[in-house]
Fold:
Amino acid sequence: MSLDKLIVFDFDGTLTTIDTIFPLAKFYARNGARLRFTLFLVIAIAYKFKLISNESLKRCFVYLFFKDRSLKSTSYLNKNFFKTVIYNKNIFHTFQKYQKLNEHVVILSANFKPLIDDWLVLHNMNGVSVLATELDEVDGVFSGKLVGSVCRGQNKVKRLASFIENGLGGNRHEYTIIAYADEASDQPVMSYADRAIWVET
Structure:
């Protein structure tokens, strides 16, 4: 019996050629968040020198750049930001191919779900599941907090396993998982996959 395919893509450094968090911060700075960018720059330097964790970096980013912004205004900025981003051409074309073939395509990312949702809308892509870092919002306005933990490392495996069981209503052994990713923190999910394709950026 042939198994269904589940095609899993990391986002930053896999579909894109860069980690988008710092370029996004600079883009927000040009759109009325200069002081917040200055504060984030200090935090980013602390992260570079391993004084804070990746999760702390992302929590600070969300607080500084998303807090009290509406989903509508943020979506507008995000879509304009992605018009400036360079994509990994070969991987992006592979992603498009699987999506057009109506395979089960998943973006599994430590990046923020609303951001990736906006990216998909910008490219008119439907039917792609997004498992990413969730942001809290109330009545269409971001609170500046995460929902749960950053979708990174072992958390990616947990999110993917939960998606298979609860989202698809199946179990792991019903799927052949093909995963695309680029960095060491993706090792857990790459080990979980049946086929791991490491992307060079």
In short: The domain at 4-198 is CATH 3.40.50.1000 (Rossmann fold). The longest helix spans residues 34-48. The chain has eight helices and six strands. The two ends are 36 Å apart (CA to CA).
